[in-house]
Amino acid sequence: LFALMYVSRRIDSKYKTDYYNRVMAFYRYVVEKDLSLSLAQTDMKGNRSLRPSEQEDPDMYVHIVKRDKNGIYVSGAKAHTTQSIASNEIVVIPTRNMTEADKDYAVAFAVPANTKGITMIARPLKETETTMDDSLSVIGRENIEVETITIFDNVFIPMERVFLNGEYDFAGLLAMMFPTFHRFTAISYRAAMADFLIGTGKLLASYNGVDDKSNIRRNLAVLISYKETLKATAIASSYSCTYDKQASLAIPDIIFTNVGKLFANENYTDVVKNIVDIAGGLVATMPSYEDFENSNEKTYLMKYLAGRKKEETMERVRLFQTLREFISSLGSLYLAGMIHAEGSIEASTMELCRSYDYSSSIDLAKFASGINDELEK
Amino acid sequence: LFALMYVSRRIDSKYKTDYYNRVMAFYRYVVEKDLSLSLAQTDMKGNRSLRPSEQEDPDMYVHIVKRDKNGIYVSGAKAHTTQSIASNEIVVIPTRNMTEADKDYAVAFAVPANTKGITMIARPLKETETTMDDSLSVIGRENIEVETITIFDNVFIPMERVFLNGEYDFAGLLAMMFPTFHRFTAISYRAAMADFLIGTGKLLASYNGVDDKSNIRRNLAVLISYKETLKATAIASSYSCTYDKQASLAIPDIIFTNVGKLFANENYTDVVKNIVDIAGGLVATMPSYEDFENSNEKTYLMKYLAGRKKEETMERVRLFQTLREFISSLGSLYLAGMIHAEGSIEASTMELCRSYDYSSSIDLAKFASGINDELEK
Amino acid sequence: LFALMYVSRRIDSKYKTDYYNRVMAFYRYVVEKDLSLSLAQTDMKGNRSLRPSEQEDPDMYVHIVKRDKNGIYVSGAKAHTTQSIASNEIVVIPTRNMTEADKDYAVAFAVPANTKGITMIARPLKETETTMDDSLSVIGRENIEVETITIFDNVFIPMERVFLNGEYDFAGLLAMMFPTFHRFTAISYRAAMADFLIGTGKLLASYNGVDDKSNIRRNLAVLISYKETLKATAIASSYSCTYDKQASLAIPDIIFTNVGKLFANENYTDVVKNIVDIAGGLVATMPSYEDFENSNEKTYLMKYLAGRKKEETMERVRLFQTLREFISSLGSLYLAGMIHAEGSIEASTMELCRSYDYSSSIDLAKFASGINDELEK
Amino acid sequence: LFALMYVSRRIDSKYKTDYYNRVMAFYRYVVEKDLSLSLAQTDMKGNRSLRPSEQEDPDMYVHIVKRDKNGIYVSGAKAHTTQSIASNEIVVIPTRNMTEADKDYAVAFAVPANTKGITMIARPLKETETTMDDSLSVIGRENIEVETITIFDNVFIPMERVFLNGEYDFAGLLAMMFPTFHRFTAISYRAAMADFLIGTGKLLASYNGVDDKSNIRRNLAVLISYKETLKATAIASSYSCTYDKQASLAIPDIIFTNVGKLFANENYTDVVKNIVDIAGGLVATMPSYEDFENSNEKTYLMKYLAGRKKEETMERVRLFQTLREFISSLGSLYLAGMIHAEGSIEASTMELCRSYDYSSSIDLAKFASGINDELEK
Ligand SMILES: Cc1cc2nc3c(=O)[nH]c(=O)nc-3n(C[C@H](O)[C@H](O)[C@H](O)COP(=O)(O)OP(=O)(O)OC[C@H]3O[C@@H](n4cnc5c(N)ncnc54)[C@H](O)[C@@H]3O)c2cc1C
Ligand SMILES: Cc1cc2nc3c(=O)[nH]c(=O)nc-3n(C[C@H](O)[C@H](O)[C@H](O)COP(=O)(O)OP(=O)(O)OC[C@H]3O[C@@H](n4cnc5c(N)ncnc54)[C@H](O)[C@@H]3O)c2cc1C
Ligand SMILES: Cc1cc2nc3c(=O)[nH]c(=O)nc-3n(C[C@H](O)[C@H](O)[C@H](O)COP(=O)(O)OP(=O)(O)OC[C@H]3O[C@@H](n4cnc5c(N)ncnc54)[C@H](O)[C@@H]3O)c2cc1C
Ligand SMILES: Cc1cc2nc3c(=O)[nH]c(=O)nc-3n(C[C@H](O)[C@H](O)[C@H](O)COP(=O)(O)OP(=O)(O)OC[C@H]3O[C@@H](n4cnc5c(N)ncnc54)[C@H](O)[C@@H]3O)c2cc1C
């Protein structure tokens, strides 16, 4: 909601609107009632090379279909909204910048999840269920977030919950600011995931008796660097935050935030490669829980699945099984999440290049090449 | 079996043994009866920094426990043997080079899969089953290979099926030659997989209306390059094969084979990254088959899951579902397979650096730096 | 010239022109007189986001300024033409595909290098000279190719040397076919360069006593893979060539050629990283030839620059010096050459994605996802 | 010197020595007299797979050859000492950890650069000179740091300047702490370099009219990410510093520092690739200063070297020339510096893996896989 506070101030000051107060009222309401929120930003988008208003089916992006003095009516659908099933309120904001033609698509609001006209269709749980059945692993049981397609069929939104209503020139700013705040939470979640992998990698290599080999150290260094680089950009981003007077908010540094996000997106598959390299083939072929229930098979398995020391066998087995779930059952979820969450690589690259302030770099280049005799600063 | 033919000739000529004839007899037998084989090379290995004979539990590598005039008795276990459940005969060879102390571990033989004393424990089928249930995808249903841990408990092998029996100085050559031949088959399997991904990527991007964007082209170029580089190394490897007179065999070029294998190992996660990048978040959140059975939900889904054109919606849905299975349910299998099959990256790097003939490179370096005045050739 | 033969046949058959005979006549002339050629394809290009005919200055691409019955008059300039100074004839072809508006830019011809109106300005020789002075290294002395900017100021080209004269629809094909043939030569030159680096890397690591360390093997494997992958794509490309009946020519496979070229472009800096990693800091700080002339300093240097064995010291010194020249003095030349020669990465990616035949991949994807029940082939 | 303060406290407290006071006295002396220091840590090392005391020539690492009550006598040589020629005092510390056998190699001290018995041999200046001659570029003229081989031939060091004298168990800590502090300075120098490249890349792409193309944005994002990731790790490292009571010093966080350093080492060639990709072939073939002095050639050059706008031509030329010097003349220096300075990649990877505290990661892995029921913290 910080992004809404930040942007609403700016809209109000340009258009003499009253969004900031609406946002603050909603914010207080959420805090008081201890409500959970989900954020629906990403639209279905149809043909990605057309703008919202150019789509064959106008509902490909959520938009205003009718306005009356009490509120607005919206239709369309948002893709992959995390946790919407479990939350009380859905916050809807635009997914991208808009032009004048896309005016009706420049819309932001909050709405209770159980409002009439809202339908949610969840991603398949099969995979998660597979994991849940397995009594050995905790990871699947504890981490069940479910994404939905969230469909709006002529849903009424009362005026006091409308936070953007056609001011298309602010859609882009709002679309950009939301993830900026959001990425902080993302960092801690990702760091935890990396921690799981670092620990698993270190243990599996130790069980194999090879954790101090040069090649394994290279693998571990990739896992460690992934986590610590994310943490570093998060720290740098808060440390270099700017204070926004209008909204009384500290804004995390956009460049550090984006650099960290892009690093996370681009390097996650490298992390996967390195943990699989450490683990070896058993990450695919480790027998499952049931095989350990047959006592004859169990004896063989406990004998042959030993690594360095017999006593560690069961730990080794569980780590392999859990890593398999992580990579397999939860695989597409984590891969898509790490590569796409909060915007695809291309979108983030574009944003980074646009928001970067090149002036001091250009000064230095001109100075170094003798074009300018002095550095401006 | 070509590797056995090749190596047995060499052992025979050094030790006056009769392995080549045994191998050829077995080969004729297999061809006549049209038997299927599986190859058990990779041992359990326990502590990876100890040699076979140094392990706490001597059974960590398959080895000879007794010899009599009719044959040998072997114990130990082989990890991840592909297709052993479905095959008639198991061919066992050493997983690495051996020293004199590892003499009893220098053993190769063939044995019917249903021989007394052999137990096989399969990798979990849960994942594959998940896929099989899904009536939309073919990929899971058709590709069910199952790896097993194959345990030998004092199994008798009659002499005519024993192909290596303590000649430890040939264990390494055999261990290396087997995969060299094996990798040919691997190439075609991998190229098919890459083809599936190229087609899926091209179609998904087309449905999204973005298949000619610069960033998508970069993604597709990675997929195409993966496949075509593998194919190129395979072609170069047969083209540059050497003919072995002793065994009357064409031996694929070891360097090209290994370079192709390493390329496949090192770059597979990059392929995954690029296909996920093309696909977007729906690869994780696309609803599954059942959601399309409820007619109300189906109407919404068919409307909102459209890309460029309405008529393509169902194709788009199926491709996303199949790609999810590929990445998720079959994920750890493919990842481990692509990164480890036929030897880990470290093992292959070692092999490449050892088998490379540096002489002409060294000549050139010495000439270029003025150490030698002339190039030898 | 093969590209010209190939394309001229096609133009002739569409436009009833007589280019093929002109090309063949020129070809015979070159062979008879044993003339050397240079190829001028890349134009100056000015603003890269505008087409040739849209440029502020029309001379940014070489074009026809006047036509009479004896020939054409051309103006404009070609950038970085290799070896033009030393060659007898310059062959000029278009740098890209053209539209009708660019008609006058669709021009190809051959012209003697000393024709009136042609001016050549060479790239700076300072760097090469630096190397030439150093009596220890051969690499710089022997490899002096010089690129020029080649300027055409209203140069007359007699009709029998004109090979494209406004047939804009063939400019793209010609622009693409030329490098396809050219890249064969490029492969062998690049493989030689890689050989120099492999030999240097292997020797330097041996002198340091570390050539069998895991990390050094990884470095060497990168160098070896670079060379052997290039070679593999070259072999595959000739092996899969298609025979063109119209021009009686074997055409190398375009996909393998491009995949090899892109691999070379994308991975060259990785090669540099690995050789510098092997070499260590002395690649920058190794004293130069003159320091070895002062006998006092020489004694110290010979003592302290020893690696594994005293006798190898001078070899070690020379290899370091030569590698420094290679990376430094010749650095921008090799870097730009390896990354850009025969087309930038973006241009090659575009070409690869366009010329790739996706049909069998799409078939497979549709079959695997249950869209089609059968594979077409 | 902070590292010496930090370590000397620890030695004193174990061995009841008086090093801390010596260090502080030297520190005050340096500050008072405003002396410049250079740091000589890296030894010549000879055979890299042997320890210091195992070398054929004992002088391959600087060591104590004699001790008397007034001081010590040292021999040996240090490689690539930056700025030693221009500095007043040389600080010498061990390059690695030492065992008891290497006792005499566990030595640290400070000594005036002009002391009898010290000889310095500089790296070749040819390249730098090349650049200096070119009146257009500032970069070469202003950045002349010179590395030397610094030879010690039985040099006397008075006791009050000796900071380690055989306490071999502290050699490793000292060797590690020095670069930890040093890397802060390194960060700012590297960030400046990255700034030059960002500015140059942005300008060159603008002159070409392509700075907003997708592929160029990818290139720029690599340059920006390089700089900002370095900055982020530096910020995180100071932010997470620990305060050392013994020496009254803030110690930068070792993990963030090392992660930043490794990132810089591993990715520098990628930066080079991206700037060369942006620049195009002119980075190699841009004519030099002298060609612009001939008025005839100048007219042509000014016409044809224009990009988007005529007025920018001279700026474009200068940027290209400067970038060429940067990549070529200064090339091996920057490459070796970025890849090796303050320790090779292998050494840093080892250090990172050793100093990392795995406990919380291991906790999490055990919890997630059901081995432990609870998280320790
Ligand atoms: C696990 C998970 C959780 C998520 N949680 C949330 C959430 O809580 N709330 C929320 O709002 N969103 C959420 N998202 C959505 C996420 O932000 C999107 O996945 C991301 O923005 C990419 O959008 P997309 O999936 O529609 O992919 P697409 O936009 O379809 O992208 C697919 C590919 O096409 C390319 N592309 C698309 N358009 C263009 C174009 N015009 N030009 C060039 N290339 C183009 C992209 O770069 C990408 O490579 C979640 C996603 C995941 C995977
Ligand atoms: C899908 C699949 C199918 C397979 N099919 C077959 C088959 O049909 N027949 C068959 O025989 N095998 C098969 N394999 C096995 C395959 O060859 C092995 O997975 C591979 O050789 C790696 O061995 P590992 O799994 O035991 O891993 P490990 O050897 O345990 O390796 C794990 C990690 O430790 C490292 N490591 C291990 N030892 C050392 C050491 N001493 N020094 C430094 N680093 C070390 C490795 O480099 C790797 O990074 C299959 C594997 C898979 C995944
Ligand atoms: C050592 C060397 C030898 C050579 N020898 C020859 C030779 O003998 N004959 C010959 O004809 N040529 C030769 N070349 C030229 C070579 O083919 C070109 O360098 C190459 O095609 C790139 O063109 P450019 O240098 O003009 O770079 P540019 O085209 O300016 O490219 C610079 C950057 O801008 C990007 N870019 C340019 N236009 C666009 C656009 N419209 N959209 C998006 N991005 C764009 C490129 O992708 C690249 O990243 C040689 C080059 C070198 C370095
Ligand atoms: C521009 C520049 C400035 C510098 N400034 C200073 C300075 O001011 N003061 C200072 O003290 N130093 C300085 N250095 C030195 C720098 O710290 C070293 O270059 C670095 O530590 C690597 O050492 P080396 O150059 O001897 O390479 P080497 O140690 O010879 O390394 C070469 C290769 O061999 C590998 N290798 C070496 N030993 C082993 C082993 N036992 N096992 C496995 N692999 C091994 C390395 O990983 C590397 O890949 C500078 C270096 C440069 C390039």
From TrEMBL, chains A, B, C, D:
<dbReference type="GO" id="GO:0016627">
    <property type="term" value="F:oxidoreductase activity, acting on the CH-CH group of donors"/>
</dbReference>
<dbReference type="InterPro" id="IPR024719">
    <property type="entry name" value="HpaB/PvcC/4-BUDH_C"/>
</dbReference>
<dbReference type="InterPro" id="IPR004925">
    <property type="entry name" value="HpaB/PvcC/4-BUDH"/>
</dbReference>
<dbReference type="Pfam" id="PF03241">
    <property type="entry name" value="HpaB"/>
</dbReference>
<dbReference type="InterPro" id="IPR009100">
    <property type="entry name" value="AcylCoA_DH/oxidase_NM_dom_sf"/>
</dbReference>
<dbReference type="InterPro" id="IPR036250">
    <property type="entry name" value="AcylCo_DH-like_C"/>
</dbReference>
<dbReference type="InterPro" id="IPR046373">
    <property type="entry name" value="Acyl-CoA_Oxase/DH_mid-dom_sf"/>
</dbReference>
<keyword id="KW-0560">Oxidoreductase</keyword>
<feature type="domain" description="HpaB/PvcC/4-BUDH C-terminal">
    <location>
        <begin position="172"/>
        <end position="366"/>
    </location>
</feature>
<keyword id="KW-0285">Flavoprotein</keyword>
<dbReference type="InterPro" id="IPR024674">
    <property type="entry name" value="HpaB/PvcC/4-BUDH_N"/>
</dbReference>
<protein>
    <submittedName>
        <fullName>4-hydroxybutyryl-CoA dehydratase</fullName>
    </submittedName>
</protein>
<keyword id="KW-0274">FAD</keyword>
<dbReference type="Pfam" id="PF11794">
    <property type="entry name" value="HpaB_N"/>
</dbReference>
<feature type="domain" description="HpaB/PvcC/4-BUDH N-terminal">
    <location>
        <begin position="2"/>
        <end position="164"/>
    </location>
</feature>
